[in-house]
Write a structure and sequence with these properties.
The protein contains 14 helices and 14 strands. The chain is an alpha/beta fold and 489 residues long. It folds into 2 domains: 358 residues, Alkaline Phosphatase, subunit A; 80 residues, Arylsulfatase, C-terminal domain (2-Layer Sandwich), CATH 3.30.1120.10. The strands form 2 sheets. It has a 10-stranded mixed beta sheet, sandwiched between helices. A 4-stranded antiparallel beta sheet has the order 11-12-13-14, with helices on one face. Strand 5 and strand 6 form a beta hairpin. The chain binds magnesium ion. Magnesium ion (MG) binds next to loops. The site of magnesium ion has 6 residues, from loops.
């Protein structure tokens, strides 16, 4: 008998076994499809808990494991050791509101209308917010059976029609916009915003009459910002414990270290970096408490935690603003310091530890978590996120090859692979625009600080980038003009 035939005969009973096994597996899958999402651990196998921790105005260089010499972020350092530390991770915009819209919708803010000049920063007198037609990550995960909680800064519209509870979150606890708003001193003096930050009144909690909300009700005003990080953390721990029998999604968007800087007594004066360091170290402590609670309750093996920030450091705040480390410029700009952020992905047993240099974006969190939870992508709109789970779980090459840097609704720069071309450059606050024909090109893998223009040496790279931009622009449909909505809602 030929060896090949022997093998076939030996494998026949095995094939029968496998066939029966496959049939049983299919039957069990069918059974499971009839289960409601609330049926406990069986249904949870493919629905890990999701926690996204989003700092405000924390720069690329503000964590010790991203190079800060005097801010000690021991818990985030540990989280990065146990998980993945991303070094080419971007936000969808360099200021608060559109960056949040990008994370929650998986779309460039220019598509949702959240990038239009009037909507770039939503002030307390704004009457608009994230359109209800947008699909948020909370809505996606809610459909997949998750309990969804928003804690912290929302800044996507604080009128009832736009609050988190109207965008897929079961609950909300937080300050609905930036912690520097409702400034009573400025309202009275009608003074200059930036000059105000030299005054002692910036240190007074009463100056900022910001509300603290529970769902749709204001429960404290002004919010005591000295304890806000602590209270956001307690709320997260409460949800972890109350909801541990069902899959949960917690979006924890800290108001800090955005100015004004406030810190609890436990952390006051502890950091050699001054109050900014104190604030970051308190956020680090909060991360530690959350990860420890997940470990204590055994949920660590079934939870994925992401830590990142909404935009780069607010450099004009001087010592009270953060640092972009070796990256150029900061918040408000389309230089790397404005849009590249620290990002740590943690999920023991699921996320393979390591340093990842692939491109990633907060918009990818929408696509990746939707994919992990088995949710389809909305098909009636362009989603800019890609699925990063092959990188998270297997260290496969990332799908993202491009990054578009918008400021407002205008495209300023584009990264394709290692190269980034600037079509427009501008200082973040009040600077002049450079002419569009002075195109700059940087190789970010070699020159992350964007110091050495290599446009003359690389005409073929520029041609390729122009092609990518043309393709992008051809498909671009900009979102609703919120100016027309003024006064509604
Ligand atoms: Mg911000």
């Amino acid at each position: 008998m030929k060896a090949q035939e022997k093998i076939k005969i030996r494998f026949k009973p095995l094939l029968c076994y496998l066939g029966t096994f496959a049939l049983l597996f299919l039957v069990s899958c069918q059974d499971r499809s009839n289960e409601t999402p609330e049926t406990g651990l069986e249904a949870r196998r493919d629905t890990p808990n999701v926690i996204i921790i989003f700092a405000d105005d924390l720069g690329y260089g503000d964590l010790s494991n991203y190079g800060h010499p005097t801010i000690r972020t021991t818990h985030l350092d540990q989280m990065a050791m146990e998980g993945q530390k991303w070094t080419n991770f971007y936000v969808g915009a360099s200021v608060c509101t559109p960056s949040r819209a990008a994370l929650l919708t998986g779309r460039l803010p220019v598509r949702s209308g959240m990038a239009s000049p009037v909507n770039r920063v939503l002030f307390p007198d704004s009457h608009h917010g994230l359109p209800s037609a947008e699909v948020t990550l909370a809505e996606q995960l809610k459909k997949a059976g998750y309990t969804t909680a928003c804690i912290g800064k929302w800044h996507l519209g604080h009128k009832e029609a736009y609050l988190p509870t109207r965008h897929g979150f079961d609950s909300y606890f937080g300050i609905p916009y930036s912690n520097d708003m409702d400034n009573l001193v400025l309202a009275q003096s009608k003074g200059n915003y930036f000059n105000f930050w030299k005054s002692e009144e910036r240190k007074d909690i009463q100056t900022f009459n910001v509300p603290l909300m529970r769902d749709t009700e204001i429960i404290e005003r002004p919010a005591d910002q000295r304890t806000i990080t602590k209270r956001y953390t307690q709320e997260a721990l409460k949800i972890i414990n109350e909801k541990k029998e069902e899959p949960f999604f917690i979006y924890l968007a800290h108001n800090l270290p955005h100015v004004p800087l406030f810190v609890s007594e436990d952390f006051e004066g502890g950091s050699p970096r001054g109050i900014y360091g104190d604030v970051v170290e308190e956020i680090d402590h909060s991360v530690g408490q959350i990860l420890n609670e997940l470990k204590r309750t055994g949920l660590d093996k079934n939870t994925i935690v992401v830590f990142t920030s909404d935009n780069g450091p607010w450099l004009i705040m001087g010592e009270e603003g953060g640092s972009a480390g070796l990256l150029r410029n900061g918040k408000g700009s389309t230089w790397e310091g404005g849009m590249r952020e620290p990002c740590i992905i943690w999920g023991p047993g699921r996320v393979k530890p390591g340093i990842v240099t692939d491109l990633g974006s907060t918009m990818d969190l929408f696509t990746t978590f939707s994919s992990i939870a088995g949710m389809d992508m909305p098909e009636d709109r362009i989603i800019d996120g890609v699925d990063l789970s092959p990188v998270w779980f297997n260290h496969e090459a990332g799908e993202r090859k491009e990054m578009f840097y918008y400021r407002g609704d205008q495209l300023y720069a584009v990264r394709v692979g290692d190269y980034k071309a600037h079509f427009i450059t501008q200082e973040p606050y009040g600077g002049d625009m450079m002419a569009k024909d002075t195109l700059l090109l940087y190789n970010l893998s070699i020159d992350p600080s964007e110091k050495y223009d290599v446009s003359n040496e690389n005409p073929e790279v520029l041609a390729k980038i122009r092609q990518v931009v043309k393709h992008h622009n051809d498909k671009m449909v900009k979102g609703p003009d919120m100016l027309k909505d003024r006064g509604k809602g």
